[in-house]
Amino acid sequence: TPGKTDDELRVADLRARAWGQYGNALRVSGRARQAEEALATAQRHRKAGTGDPMLRAWLFERETPLAIFQGRFHDAIEICDEAGEIYRELDERHLLASTMIQKATATLYSGEAESAVRILNQAIPLIDQEEDPHLLLAACHNLILCYIDLGQPEKAVQLYSETRELFQEFEDPLILLRATWREGKLLRDLGQLQAAETTLLRARKGYMERKLAYEAALVSLDLATVYVKLGLVDKLKRTVLETVPIFHALRVGLETLASLLQLQKVADQEQQALDLIHALSARIEPLRRQRIEES
């Protein structure tokens, strides 16, 4: 920047990084609007700094998860492409893999599971497992979700079996909970319904103990599909009643709550019940973004 000393330019870079970290922390704590403002401030400081391309790409990586949380999947994909271009030019393979995995996440959430699989299969060989085992875990997690979405549970189970030891290396309870939830969904999709029930109940209990209503709601609906397929009408009705307070915690609309209660009336009609559960899951997805934006 004309008229500025090297020290002033470096200070601007440091401020950009500090605001970027702050914005990311706000996003993680669910304060999306404030996170957006902080990241915009970070970009202003970056533009007043040295022009370091690594810093530019690093800020893009902070902006991507916020765009995903807000449902701006196309924006997230474009941001990842910009960061990826920088990392390619600098031959930063591991960092390129990181931004590709973010891109795959946005692609998966936008409904393009096949494209997400291609991106992940390109990213995984670039990952330095020793440097960042969490990144490999994230890639495998997303690939498993892709195979579930594509109706290929056998591939998902094979990958889960291959990476199970990796999951168990982590002591983070949320990582283990996600693994439990994923295992329950896999068992359900493979038709191992009683094992799926046990696993999903364990996952729901964990999320409820941590007051994570959004995740608890989705696990409850996964559990409901198990009871529909097993023909366990009484257990399905009890699950609906247990899910009502979770929906209240998410501040769902009356129409969504009525649809949940309607599930009790069609509990013995498999296809109607499954269609209703699918519709409820689709309605809950935007609630995470709404809850974040209202915080």
- Main sheet attributes: strand count, strand direction, barrel closure: none
> What distance lies between the first and last C-alpha atoms, to the nearest angstrom?
37 Å
Could you give the order of the helices and strands? HHHHHHHHHHHHHH
Mean pLDDT: 88
Rounded radius of gyration (Å): 21 Å
Shape descriptor reads: globular
Ranges where pLDDT stays below 50 over 5 or more residues in a row are 289-295
Number of strands: 0
Helix content: over 70%
Structural class: mainly alpha
Strand fraction equals under 5%
Individual helix count: 14
Could you explain how this protein is built, in words?
By secondary structure, the chain is mainly alpha-helical. Helices cover about 80% and strands about 0% of the residues. It is globular, with a radius of gyration of 21 Å. The model is unreliable at about 290-295 (pLDDT under 50).
Explain briefly what this protein structure is.
With 295 residues, the chain is mainly alpha-helical.
Task: Give the topology.
Blueprint: H1 6-28, H2 32-47, H3 53-69, H4 73-89, H5 93-109, H6 113-123, H7 133-149, H8 153-168, H9 173-189, H10 193-209, H11 213-230, H12 233-249, H13 254-265, H14 270-294
Give short descriptive properties of this protein.
single chain; 295 residues; mainly alpha; 81% helix
